[in-house]
Amino acid sequence: MLHVFKNNLKSILSLAVLLSTSVLFYQNCAQVPEQKGLLSSEEFASQGPFPLDVEPDTYAYMSCSDRPELDKTSYFTVKLGAIFSGSGIFLSQAFQDYLAANNIKASKVKQMLIDNRYSREAKLQVSLRLPSNIKGNPLGTGPYAGRVGVSPWGSLTSTAVVNDLALTTTENKLNIINGKPLVGSFLISNISEGAIVDAISNSGISVIGFQGAFFSDASQKDYRIIAPSDLSGGNLNAVYGRGYVATVGAPTDKNTGGLLNAHNSKVLASLTEKNVVDGSFAPIASWNCKAQAQYRIVPAGHENSAGCGGPWDATGLQGDDLKAYTAAKALLIDSVSSTRWRISQTNRCIVDTLASSSIPAQCYNQNKSIEWGRGVLDVCGGSNNYQCPEYLSICWR
Fold this sequence. Notes:
By secondary structure, the protein is of the alpha+beta class. Helix content is 24%, strand content 24%. β11 (267-274) and β12 form a beta hairpin.
């Protein structure tokens, strides 16, 4: 009997140890955030900071945005891009810190981006907004499809993007997918040139941020921009992304270096990056706006009168000329308009090769002559029968 009792006691003690070990093991496992417990995958992935950030390096402006019915596949008011190494989209620093603090493995990040209700199917968006109501409707007229630009990358959690996006850091950003640079633009047409200049330099702010798929109102998905207040009730007048305010001035004569003051305000003179995440709109950095990145927009057939011949490539270019050409090519020659534009860095002009008698030169009034040869002291567009050249200008960080 004693022998049986001892055996039973041993069995009971063994079972107790086993149960204690199991409980401890479960508790230890439960402390690791990857074990979601009762949380759904969406709830678990969405409880951290907003996971995305973007840092572009190129800002471009086309001065002919006041023309009606511009082709939005090739023309734009403002286009932002990440063209050069060190720029692009990446996991936000707050999200990287969250991953490290909770011991979340790198192999889990991709699925977290897909499960997170804020980043799932998010798209990179470029728009013009009011600083006093930055979450409100984007500025401009007509359909949102024109005045809110979305990156050609599409969804940032698509298979083509998310695999690389999950590996990014503050030092290792993503700016090329399948040969396509990270770009986005908006187009505001058929309003006065003065109103457009005021909008990008004074009354409005150009914003690159993120368009969410989680908004309950389907119509809002085309123009809403993800904000801190969507996640945690943060600043009501702040959004995730970057903001930019430009000044627009007279072009520089490529031969003399003098300002063509009589040509009106046609090109970017300066650009300031602003903090839109905390709602302060405090200046973050000033960008470079060089004369080498000012290009006259020339319709096909006007090359001779505009003095816009080749070469049409980067042969022999160095310094700011090479950087300007590289930026212009990435911004203009994309998958939609790869054969439309030719760039002459030597003559600082771009040719719209589709502009012809059958396809009007959209950047210009067809009933007026373009005054290509006006100098520093000459007035252009001084009569009803003439108009000044229009320009593409680019700033970079």
